[in-house]
Write a structure and sequence with these properties.
This protein is an alpha+beta fold. About 60% of the residues lie in helices and about 10% in strands.
Length: about 350
């Protein structure tokens, strides 16, 4: 035990150097600087040699080597390693120590061999446990965030269905109303029921569900057509408050993006504009310019102060003036834009309306 501990201390630079050269064969480790790559390996080797020295009567303190591997697993997750690569790192260290022991003429058998492998197995278990815990937490966070965003985006079409049903009920003749009223009542009742469930999900930040996070699915997006669909979907909401909506997007304007997410962006922007515009105009516009495509929603509503603009994209900062506000609409818009490599610009002033522009690579 003492000879192995001395070898680890005396040859530590050589051991780490050999380990480093072998680990660099992994693609994720190839470009890491020396200090980052070695990370917690030296502290682990120190703890390992101390545990071997402290060996007494068949007892070895395996817990003494946990600290460095715990930190190692956490750091490796942040660097983009996977669990298999973390395990491989320690197995490379295992083989490196065996090679150095053999070169020094040390026979690692019996209790010494069991101690060496036991300490390395404990390190692997600790590093993997930390890695898996951090991975699970991040995955759960993504699932919850995506679920909340999906729930938020269901509210707008649900509201449009509810409003269209109310308008239809008012415009029916007395005879038609008698036949259709029971069906409309079912629609309205279920709209209210679903809306209540959605609001509860938005309030519950710990809700988890199946994986909802998805990669972008890019394709050609005809912006004029998408804008027409959004205007048609939300026109019942606009008519209820006397707001006019106009689609000024050029008919030939298109970009390469996720069609579903682009519609989400426009839905969120128009829905947001409707909240703050009474008896005015909401205009959807767009243009192409030097490899970029911009599209915007401009309203003649109440506008925003500079203070409000500063916190506009803060996550889930609800507007107390609107009970239905969850504060996520513009946050969703910003994240979708950034996922496409774009950005969001906002111009506004009190009583002068607001224009939100999304700029995406063409």
């Amino acid at each position: 035990m003492d000879k192995l501990a001395s070898l680890i201390q005396d040859k530590q630079d050589d051991i780490v150097g050999q380990w480093r050269a072998r680990v660099r064969q992994m693609p994720t480790a190839r470009d890491l600087d020396k200090l980052t790559l070695e990370d917690s390996i030296r502290p682990f080797l120190d703890a390992m040699s101390n545990a071997l020295i402290a060996y007494m009567d068949g007892e070895i303190n395996y817990a003494a080597v946990k600290t460095a591997p715990l930190a190692h697993g956490f750091q490796r997750f942040g660097l983009g390693f996977n669990i298999t690569q973390v395990v491989k790192e320690y197995n490379i260290l295992r083989q490196t120590l065996l090679d150095f022991a053999e070169a020094a003429g040390l026979r690692l058998d019996g209790e010494v061999r069991r101690a060496l492998h036991g300490l390395l197995d404990e390190a692997v278990a600790s590093a993997v446990d930390t890695f898996a815990s951090v991975q699970a937490r991040e995955h759960e966070s993504r699932v919850q965030e995506r679920l909340l965003y999906v729930v938020h985006d269901l509210k707008t079409p649900l509201s449009a269905i509810h409003t269209a049903s109310l308008l239809l009920e008012k415009r029916l003749s007395e005879e038609s109303h008698k036949r259709v009223a029971p069906m409309l009542a079912v629609i309205l009742r279920n709209c209210d029921h679903v809306n209540t469930m959605l609001m509860k999900l938005l309030e519950d930040k710990t809700t988890s569900a199946a994986i909802l996070h998805a990669e972008l699915v890019r394709g050609e997006v005809p912006l004029y057509k998408v804008a027409e669909e959004v205007v048609a979907d939300l026109r019942p909401l606009a008519e209820r408050t006397g707001v006019k909506m106009q689609n000024a997007v050029p008919t030939n304007l298109a970009l390469n993006a996720d069609p579903f997410l682009c519609k989400q962006v426009l839905q969120n922007l128009v829905s947001n504009a409707l909240k703050y515009t009474n008896q005015g105009t909401i205009t959807l516009g767009g243009k192409a310019d030097e490899g970029e495509v911009s599209f915007w929603v401009s309203d003649t509503g109440i506008g925003m102060s500079e203070e409000k603009l500063r916190t506009l994209f803060s996550d889930a900062v609800a507007d107390p003036a609107h009970a239905s506000s969850s504060g996520m609409g513009l946050t969703i818009v910003k994240r979708i834009a950034e996922a496409h490599g774009g950005k969001v610009l906002v111009e506004s002033a009190p009583h002068k309306g607001t224009t939100v522009t999304v700029v995406l690579p063409g």
